[in-house]
Amino acid sequence: MNEQLVQFLKDNRIHEVECVIPDMTGIARGKIVPKNLFMSEDSMKMSKAVLNITVNGEFAEFERFAGASDPDMVCVPDANTVRMVPWALERVAVVIHDCQGFDGRPVAISPRAVLRRVLKAYESKGWRPVVAPEMEFYLIAQNSNPHEPLRPPVGRNGRTEAGRQSFSIDAVNDFDPFFQELSAFCEAANLGVETLIHEVGAGQMEINFTHGDALDLADRVFLFKRAVRETAYRHKIFATFMAKPMQDEPGSAMHIHQSIVDAKTGQNIFSKEDGSAHERFYHHIGGMQKYLPKALPIFAPYVNSYRRLVPNVAAPTNVRWGYDNRTCGIRIPNSPPAARRLENRVPGVDVNPYLAMAATLACGYLGMVEGIEASEPMTDSAYDLEDEGNFGFPRALDDAIEAFEACEELRDILGAEFVDAFCAVKRKESETFNKGITSWERQHLQLHV
């Protein structure tokens, strides 16, 4: 057992340990074990099949990806991820685990392994990515009937938000008890949350993280989602990370700021010594323009995700790029040469953070190694473009899955086995959705057709 991990458990008088792995959808799977049992083992065993569970609990192509005999995999704790579970009634720690075979090799369909694979490609070039996610989410009133539309919660003033309260301090303060406890939980769990703002939608908030290592940020986002939901429960409201939870409100995104530094010097490789933009910067953009649409199932992983990607509601409809242009899928924020970066505005907040980090970095990497040229920057609204051709997105999940499966370059950098397994999960979810009859169908077709 790792000495750092053992010391943490002793210093914090831990009673139980949550041993977790992120599955393909980003849901935490695992076991809760007593501290002494955890310390007596170097790993835990779990069925490999848990990685291929759909968001609604079904298994996708069980025998193909798990094996007919339902074999175990070895889950090894990553000591760098140990944290307190601040909302637990007892002194509980959580540790994220890596998934390995009994031969010690990473399980290729594990989301953490996919991100590590992409980071290793950067390492082979002497590069190190730096990322910073921005996460939007909605606070909503508790509801027990999934057939009823969601609505904003009641705040301290006893009323729900009337209209949109973009960037309103008072609207945030209306939920001060929630945010104060969330802030305390994030600090106790060392999640590195930086700023809070009220976004455009009614009850929609945004949290920004400090920039840093991609794997560490993916871990923090993974844990942060749970912290938000747990805090909401304690305040008799819900929090949702659906991409489009309410029909007439904007969707929620997880924007990813990314730059690349030289692993030895720490210098931003997007900038030349004279401060001008390096050709690698434009190639990184070019790679994202070429491959983001093909990787769209990772950034828009559910049927609901595509309801967000429509014009004029603060979400991109293409992969055009521009300087400080929020209508584009790729925005270049104003920043000095040492901090030159780009913002991927395509991902919804419903993504698996490990896979979203892996895919956005993979697209930029392919652009740099292939020398892909970027288009001219947009100076006007990218929403006004009609025929987008290669810059547009698939408009439905099934079409996006087909494009992702067929992209050999992404299969190579992310791993062919992962791409096939991920698409199997998404296809299973899509098939399940299509079996359902929606309230719209009952309302408009039942007595009229």
* Number of distinct beta strands: 14
Report the radius of gyration as a whole number of Å.
Answer: 22 Å
Query: Helicity level, as a percent range?
Result: 25-40%
Largest sheet: 8 strands, mixed
> Strand percentage, roughly?
15-25%
Report what the structure shows.
This protein has 449 residues and is an alpha+beta fold. It folds into two domains: 3-107, Glutamine synthetase, N-terminal domain (Ubiquitin-like (UB roll), Roll); 119-409, Glutamine synthetase/guanido kinase, catalytic domain (Creatine Kinase, Chain A, domain 2). It has 14 helices and 14 strands. It has helices spanning 3-11, 35-40, 62-65, 111-124, 169-173, 176-188, 214-234, 279-291, 296-299, 353-370, 397-406, 408-414, 416-435, 439-445, and strands at residues 16-22, 28-34, 44-47, 72-77, 83-84, 92-100, 127-141, 193-198, 204-209, 237-240, 254-262, 321-323, 330-332, 342-344. The strands form two sheets. Strands 7, 8, 9, 10, 11, 12, 13 and 14 form an eight-stranded mixed β-sheet that branches. The radius of gyration is 22 Å and the shape is globular. The protein starts with a helix and ends with a helix. The model has no long low-confidence stretch (mean pLDDT 93).
Set down the secondary structure blueprint:
Elements: H1 3-11, E1 16-22, E2 28-34, H2 35-40, E3 44-47, H3 62-65, E4 72-77, E5 83-84, E6 92-100, H4 111-124, E7 127-141, H5 169-173, H6 176-188, E8 193-198, E9 204-209, H7 214-234, E10 237-240, E11 254-262, H8 279-291, H9 296-299, E12 321-323, E13 330-332, E14 342-344, H10 353-370, H11 397-406, H12 408-414, H13 416-435, H14 439-445
Parallel strand pairs: 1-6, 12-13
Antiparallel strand pairs: 1-2, 3-4, 4-6, 5-6, 7-9, 7-10, 7-11, 8-9, 11-14, 13-14
